[in-house]
Amino acid sequence: MPDHYFSPDPAAPETLRTIRVPLAGRERELVTATGVFSGDRLDVGTSVLLDAVPAPPEAGDLLDLGCGWGPIAATLALRSPAARVWAVDVNARALSLVERNAELLSLSNIEPATPDRVPADVRFAAIWSNPPIRIGKAQLHELLETWIPRLAPDATAWLVVQKHLGADSLQRWLEERFPDHDVERATSKKTYRILAVTAPSED
What we know:
By secondary structure, this protein is an alpha/beta fold. The chain contains five helices and nine strands.
């Protein structure tokens, strides 16, 4: 299998670099590397998501699904210091970078974890994700089928997806797969859609 950013253990040599990115209202200096998603810059889709999504819940468990080197997780942690932020990825190098960046930003509320390390009873007050579309449709659907049911009642998963990579078809699939959830296109910006999937209220 070729080496991808969603490989658990990237074979490419790790070349670290420092970049400056706008997170939570100011420029921050963070560390990235080869072998992770968008390892040389803040991805445009991630930037669109961070600009468009409303403020996260102040407390509870928050999830950055497919965290890469951690710009979404860091934003959640900075904006909600009383929350616990789960930064989930299969890529061990990405999780190491998340841990390093949490230290750089003096953030103690980020939990880098592979999917199997997140306790099964955790329910999320919000999910923010630039999901790994390029893993393929079947794997993407499996990923979302695993995590969206773990939203707390009335909680929302915010997903950014590029239009030409299937945002509209993904929205239709979400509507069919989660008929009890409220699925909507919250906004469009540049070539990206922000999809909002809100769990039903507790009975």
